[in-house]
Structure formats: structure tokens, C-alpha cells
Amino acid sequence: MARNRDRKQRGRSEGTREERKVLKDRELLTFSFKYLDQTQPKKDPQSIRLWENKSLLGPLIERMKELSVLTRDEALNQQQIKLYGDFPGNGKTEFQHPTHVEQNVPWSVIEGIGGKPRVAGFIAESTFYVVFLDSEHRFWISKKKGT
Questions:
Q1: What gap in Å lies between CA 123 and CA 144, rounded to an integer?
Q2: Closest Cα partner for 126 from 57, 52, 70?
Q3: Peptide bond into 88 cis (omega under 30)
């Protein structure tokens, strides 16, 4: 008697069964601050506290939330994450390759945090490891467009 009542409350009739559609397992992006370096660049070290004072932590968390519904391949194919590969060469960055990060990691950047701010790091499997907070776009310095 109680089972029939439970079925009716869930909107199911006895003797019927709706098949649940199983979504294909997708390994979604995750984020890690395990390798975060808050000592660079030397002349203007970027830290969590600095980003908090500049009101950038909220937009960063929102951006990561948006990205966390994508797989690594989706994020890269949609250019939600820009893949650089090698660490930027001399003259193209104010940052130095940290000793606690392997030399051959695929460096990447998350943009879309609002204007100049970026987060630089690397992707291993489905995890984006945040290494640098870059509020002034100094990780990979490019020439200004139109000059």
C-alpha cells in the first residue's frame, strides 16, 4: 500500500517504467591552485589579496564556474582557454618559469575575467593548474593592435 502511494507521489503508475537517459560521461574541467606563485612578477607581485583588493576574485570565480561545465577539449576548441604551449620567451613576459613547475608543461591562459586580467597556468588531463594571477596582462606581452 505504501509503495503504491510512493509511486503515485513520484508520478509513476504501477507496471510502467520510464527509461532514464544516461548522459555520456564527460570529464569536466577542474581547477587547482597547487602551483600558485604569488611572488611574480617581481615589480608588482600578484597575490590573492591583491586580486581581492582589485575586486577580481568574484569575476575569476564566475569565469571558472563557466568553464567547469566544459571538458578540456571543449574549452580549447571554443578558445575559452588559450593554449600557448611553451613558456613565453624573453621580452614577451615579466614572469619567470617557477622552479616548482616542470619545464615541459603546456602553458595556457584563461581570459574573460574582465579586460586585462588573465590567469596563467597549465593543463594536465582535465585539470587547469593556476600558476600566475596576471591583472595587467604581463604574462604574454603582445604588441597593441593597430599600432
A1: 27
A2: 70
A3: no
| Contact between 141 and 94 (Cβ < 8 Å) | yes
Kindly report the backbone phi and psi dihedral angles of residue 2, in degrees, each rounded to the nearest multiple of 5, phi listed first: -65, -35
Q: What digits encode the pLDDT tens for the residues 62-114? A: 999 999 999 999 999 999 999 999 999 888 999 999 999 999 999 999 999 99
pTM equals 0.80
For the record, the C-alpha cell of 45 comes out as 607581485
Tell me the pLDDT tens digit for each residue of 127-137: 999 999 999 99
Helix (H) or strand (E) holding 129: strand 127-134
Q: Where are the alpha helices (DSSP H) in the chain?
A: 2-9, 48-53, 57-67, 72-77
